[in-house]
Design goal:
Strand order of the largest sheet: 8-21-20-19-9-16-18-17
Structural class: alpha/beta
Shape: elongated
Oligomer: single chain
Helix content: 40-55%
Strand content: 15-25%
Low-confidence stretches: 172-176, 757-770
Length: 770
């Protein structure tokens, strides 16, 4: 049997990836060092790490269950013949020697050999080549390829890991990279902190033990505090929870997320490329009218079309509509046929006594102008298919010979009721919508205009354009007609060269190349097996209006994580700076681990966690890491300024040396807490009820917990939880001065060095109100 590749991580992988991280390893080593000197009260951070890890695992497992439940609805089926019985089974249940019954749009799930019939297959997912490959009896079909046209019966020769596609997947997984700015940025932070933490830790420890003659306990505790401060421990948790929460929310709207990071990618999208059929329209085609050409009898047309439909292997949505309208006939006997393909845009069948009957796109059968009545149908957004006949030879390679036109078949496909509202939403959010279709550009333009696509009248026929011109026209036009599969991919590439982030929707094999090229690929549930398998997102209800929810979820994650990172990185940056200052001045790191843990929990974790779920749909116009550092650095530098000021006051004898239970420690701890709260203040602008509540409870919570710990220490427990002295009146006065200095320093650095502008707050307001 075939072993179906799961689109989600296994439970073991989720647990492993959350447990065995560099951050957790560094935290574990610090914990071991603290245990070795019996610094039990400073180990509280391990409980916070355990809680973070548990929450992340639970949230990812919840998202995994929902995704796997939805994936069952999207999982392709295989039509097979087994022991003489025709049946439909899951592709995982296909066995050796089963006969695959393949037709247009089907993905080939197992390596097989054709027993009967002829098909054209697309092997682009395996070879990267877009040309259709003709396969006939005795030829080998590779798993992972897709049938473009024709029908065949093929015997399965490989299943499971022996399949060609499985071997390709295994190789791809070895080098598969994650396309996530958030994750890649955090990896940079991890590498940097991992690079700094070891040498700085060694220097701090040796300096404390040998140069200041501290005992082992003091050396380990102060060194551990400095190293703990460098690790933005909760930020990975926020990213995982944010993305998982988005997946859970979208699953309830029947959106299958096959790539965790596609939400983030869609948040950056500024161009959305839509197919016409099944996206703007409902995909429910029906024949509205048959317009006969002069001198052609209705009986002739019905006899030829009926005979063609009786014997053709074509079965896409257009031919299904023809089958529903025309009666099948055995009046004409076929000699040979050429199936329809997206590149040719026609299908042909040679009859023994009549000639070759051809049905396809108007520009392929009739280069001249069409009658006004037919042109009027096209301008009204209706699809036109011409039927003709010829006595000349017809082949796949050369253009069609001159045709005697018989009839124009008018096909309608209703526009989705919510299409206009969805397009209006994308336009209001700064996302440009482009329609890319294989249909006649006049027809596509008319439908796009009815659906409310901006500048729908600016259309172009790509069959008249050289590939070298695509860079110029990609941005100039909104509607592209008569687009080949290769041109779809080239259009996406051209938009990339113009620095656009592109999302592409598709439903057929002809969309595979463009879907793979796009930054975010989206398939509709009623589309082909191949399109659903390659896409990052699958709209199971085939309703593209839910892309609004996908966009909102992606922007929520990126915007909120960036705002929260501006708080987390404050501690990371000032810890590095303070460690360097301490090494240069031979000064002990001024805090202990339990104090750093309190900052982690109350000032960083609490407000960021709850703010991460808040709607925040403003357009993403920044890069994550530079923006997060720009927000955090002024606060971190203001703390460094205060620490240098403390060293000066200590040198002048105005305040004593630092360490556990000293006035200096109390002063500096209250200072970093206050500056951290200032960071939360910036994160919460502009204020609403939730953000006001988070800021107020963060500030009150920090000072209340500090006061409670000091009260318990002196009156009830007589146990020093925070290792902090009760600040006296002179310390409180200096703390007030430090607060003013830190605010001034933060504002100076924010407005000058880091170029904060009034527009920053305007952007925040935009994000909130939208």
């Amino acid at each position: 049997m075939n072993k179906q590749e799961k689109i989600t991580k296994t439970t073991g992988q989720i647990i492993k990836e959350n447990l065995f991280t560099l951050f957790n390893l560094l935290n574990l080593l610090i914990a071991v060092a603290l245990v070795s000197v019996h610094a039990w009260s400073n180990l509280f951070f391990i409980l916070v790490i355990a809680l973070n890890t548990t929450i992340s695992i639970v949230q990812e497992l919840k998202a995994k269950q929902l995704v796997e439940k939805l994936s069952l609805l999207s999982m392709p089926k295989a039509d097979i013949e087994r022991n003489g019985t025709v049946m439909q089974v899951d592709i995982a249940e296909v066995c050796l020697d089963d006969i695959l019954l393949l037709e247009s749009g089907k993905q080939i799930c197992s390596d097989s050999v054709i027993q009967e019939g002829t098909v054209e297959v697309n092997e682009s997912l395996l070879t990267g080549e877009s040309d259709a490959v003709c396969k006939k009896e005795g030829d080998f079909l590779l798993s992972g390829s897709s049938v473009i046209s024709g029908k065949c019966r093929a015997k399965v020769v490989h299943v499971g890991s022996e399949n060609y596609a499985s071997q390709i997947v295994r190789e791809a997984k070895k080098s598969k990279s994650i396309h996530s700015e958030l994750v890649l940025s955090m990896r940079k932070v991890t590498r940097l902190t991992g690079f700094l933490i070891i040498p700085l830790g060694i220097l701090l420890f040796i300096q404390a033990l040998l140069f200041r003659d501290n005992d082992m306990y003091s050396a380990v505790v102060t060194t551990s505090a400095g190293l703990l401060g460098m690790l933005p421990k909760g930020l990975y948790l926020l990213i995982s929870i944010g993305l998982a929460a988005g997946i859970v929310s979208l699953s309830r709207k029947n959106v299958l997320v096959q790539d965790l990071y596609s939400l983030e990618n869609l948040a950056h999208v500024d161009v959305l490329c839509l197919d016409k059929t099944g996206t703007l329209t409902e995909g429910k085609m029906q024949v509205e009218d048959v317009v006969l050409f002069p001198g052609v009898s209705e009986d002739t047309v019905l006899r030829l079309i009926g005979s063609f439909l009786r014997h053709t292997a074509d079965n896409n949505a257009t031919f299904q509509a023809l089958n529903r309208h025309f009666a099948l006939s055995d009046a004409c006997q076929p000699v040979q046929s050429i199936p329809f393909s997206s590149d040719r845009k026609w299908s042909a069948m040679e009859f023994s006594d009549t000639g070759t009957f051809v049905i396809g796109a108007p520009e392929r059968l009739c280069p001249a102008e069409l009658p006004e009545k037919i042109e009027a149908h096209m301008q009204a957004g209706k699809r036109i298919i011409l039927a003709g006949i010829t006595e000349d030879q017809v082949d796949k390679v050369n253009p069609l010979p001159k045709m005697q036109l018989l009839a124009a078949i008018v096909i309608v496909d209703p526009i989705r009721k919510n299409a206009s509202a969805a397009i209006d939403y994308f336009r209001s959010e700064g996302v440009e919508v482009k329609i890319i279709s294989g249909d006649n550009p006049v027809t596509v333009s008319a439908i796009a205009e009815q659906a409310g696509v901006p500048e729908a009248g600016k259309f172009i026929d790509l069959s008249t354009v050289n590939d070298e011109e695509l860079d110029q026209i990609a941005e100039e036009y909104s509607v592209f007609g008569r687009v080949t599969p290769v041109q779809k991919r080239l259009l996406v590439k051209a938009l990339h060269r113009k620095k656009h982030t592109v999302a592409m929707t598709g439903d057929g094999v002809n969309d595979l190349l463009a879907l793979k090229e796009a930054d975010c690929s989206i398939a509709v549930g009623q589309g082909s097996d191949a399109a659903r398998q390659v896409a990052q997102l699958v709209l199971l209800d085939s309703d593209f209006s839910v892309l609004r929810d996908v966009l909102m979820q992606g922007r929520r994650v990126v915007n909120n994580i960036t705002r929260s990172a501006g708080v987390f990185f404050i501690k990371t940056i000032y810890s590095v700076i303070l460690c360097l200052i301490c090494i240069i001045t031979n000064t002990p790191f001024p805090f202990v681990p339990v104090q750093i843990t309190l900052i982690d929990l109350i000032i960083e974790g609490y407000p960021s966690f709850f703010a991460s779920f808040e709607p925040n749909t403003g357009k993403v116009t920044f890069r994550f890491l530079p923006e997060a550092i720009r927000r955090a650095a002024p606060n971190a530098i203001s703390i460094a300024v205060c620490f240098v000021l403390y060293l000066i006051l200590n040198y002048l004898g105005i305040i004593g040396a630092g360490g556990e239970n000293t006035q200096a420690n109390a002063l500096l701890f209250l200072t970093i807490g206050t500056v951290g709260i200032m960071g939360v203040f910036k994160m919460c602008r502009p204020f609403n009820k939730l953000r006001s509540f988070l800021l107020a409870t963060t500030a009150i919570g920090f000072y209340a917990v500090v006061s409670l710990c000091l009260f318990l220490k002196n009156h009830i427990l007589e146990y020093d939880i925070l290792k902090m002295a009760v600040p006296d009146s002179s310390t409180l006065l200096i703390f007030l001065i430090f607060t003013i200095v830190s605010i001034a320093a933060e504002r100076i650095f924010a407005l000058t060095v880091f170029k904060e502008q009034h527009g920053d707050e305007t952007l925040l307001k935009y994000n909130f109100h939208h």
